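Figure 2 data, in text form.
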Amino acid sequence: MERVPALDEPLKKSLGPATAKVMAEALDLHTVGDLLHHYPRRYAERGELTTLSDLPLDEHVTVVAQVADARVLTFNGSKGRGQRLEVTITDGSGRVQLVFFGKGVHKPHKDLLPGTRAMFAGKVSLFNRRLQLAHPSYELLRGDGEESADSVAGWAGALIPIYPATTKLESWKIAKAVDAVLPSAADAVDPLPPALREGRGLAELPDALRMIHRPRTKADVADARDRLKWDEAFVLQVALARRRHADTQLPAVPRRPAPDGILDAFDAKLPFTLTEGQTKVSREIFDDLATDHPMHRLLQGEVGSGKTMVALRAMLAVVDSGGQAAMLAPTEVLAQQHHRSVTEMMGELAEGGMLGGAERATKVVLLTGSMGTAARRQALLDLVTGEAGLVIGTHALIEDKVQFHDLGLVVVDEQHRFGVEQRDALRGKGKQPPHLLVMTATPIPRTVAMTVFGDLETSVLDQLPAGRSPIATHVVPAADKPHFLARAWERVREEVENGHQAYVVCPRIGDEEDQRKKAKASAEDEAEKRPPLAVLEVAEKLRTGPLAGLRIAVLHGRMHPDDKDDVMRRFAAGDLDVLVATTVIEVGVNVPNATAVVIMDADRFGVSQLHQLRGRVGRGSAAGLCLLVSEMPEASPARQRLNAVAGTLDGFELSRIDLEQRREGDVLGQAQSGVRSSLRVLTVIDDEEVIAAAREEATALVLDDPDLTAHPGLRTALEALLSKDREEFLEKG
């Protein structure tokens, strides 16, 4: 089908090569359509003052404010005497300082007189513990000068659109570029079927684009956003509905556990009863496995809610039915850990073909990239002959050489760590499409699950097994109260004296590769912002300082796999007291005797990651302790984030906070293979009703017309919005 010429026109043609180049490099905008879908982040009203009180550190911002005072200071620098202009701007909620240096002081000194109102754009930095904008760009909003008069004429509308901008391209320059291409909005092809649009009272697409960029009133903005949210939700849900529909057309071998088989034998030897949640989720999975089209299920559960047990029982059910099951883990540490815990849980049932193995036993093999040739050859042989019913491995499972006798189920652990191609390659190893179970310990709000994993049915485990202990979490403000950090190390010693163990987590490794990256940072950055704490440095300081005499080892991703495994084995066996590690311990590592985790530079980690790391303790009968060490000031957003983690153990609540604090696109971009066309106006937390309604409408439409033959506009939108990469991503699932 022909694409829409007006919206597909390169920006070079409309805006000239120089502006188009900056748009492409800085904002990844290449066509008229891209620019029309680059919506204002918010709107400032003429004369309205924006909030300076909560500017985000290290982000590029655009603010409307008034100059309170300006002064030029002379200082002696390395190149002789220099000048610095300091301008204080205010908006009623707070004050921020602007700084200009050298020859750059003259024009702003003339323009920015007290009482002048302007738009300022720049990156928020911290100097002497105060927020500032260094060398911001600005556009005057009133005054007698010719330039100011032009500006006011340019911003004649009642609402000033403030666009997501960059250092190279300020909001007002983007606004002028939008003016140049806005007439093309008339040619936008509407993806929504007319009946749906009229039934829900939504504006037509060309009108919505005009209203979002140049609204006359706040009602215009609301109408435009309502309409554009529907576009985003509906087009994405149609893509997912088509994916689900295609899955129902695929054949699969039904897998039912045999009576008195290996699953029954396994259940009979369990030393505990399954939680209600585990029983319910297992039933959902077994029902899916018994159908003749492939299961596609997402199993999400709290840290330590027993997902591995549920997955293992599903795998054993498939072995019972004569098939094989593969579990894909993101790291060697985790693959080895899973292999160890599965063989321990199964006991003699994992010793198929061996002396002492049970009658209904099978073999459980491990396959990782670092295995020796002989062990690897044996594992491959066990898979191709069907001798091994279960295999646990890393991406090594995906290699061409790996052949299965009859692959019936693929379990993907920590789904967000895998590229779609990897998952797809493993699924392609079945004679018919195998069933798929995706697990994540990062709780996902329902709307995100519908939006990101909309092609998967969802099961939730939110109940912790009996015997899990509470975890106390505290923020340790290392800069404000250094004695708190000293006390943290005392607490670690106390845990070890009581026969327990501890983790210390750092954001960086601290070897030569790190040093090279560090050397690239400018001297100014070094003064302003120290590099993140490193495993090797912190371990050395602890060995010779507060934890002297304890048995300390390090664990990080660049160690040889055998060394990593050796350290984990020694820690699990209780031969080490303290493990200083990077986030390689984030998922799946299970040492019930570890009761304390100290997370250094905790503000450098995301909310979900902190929750995962905290989940490494409190896994036994003793209570857990998590200490979040940070040097960030108390009022900073980073500290508020840490306080949120300390305030609740509910992963679903934290995932909401995480989503509210991060840009939506980051959340979806990562999950949707990083394609640029992430959501722009749809917010998955606030727009639950729109997403749910769009899912219903999309499912009905696809059921009626899977190829969208009656909806050419929708087909065009799918191609344009989802792009080839993302279509492929959704096709592969």
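Caption note: The longest helix spans residues 218-249.
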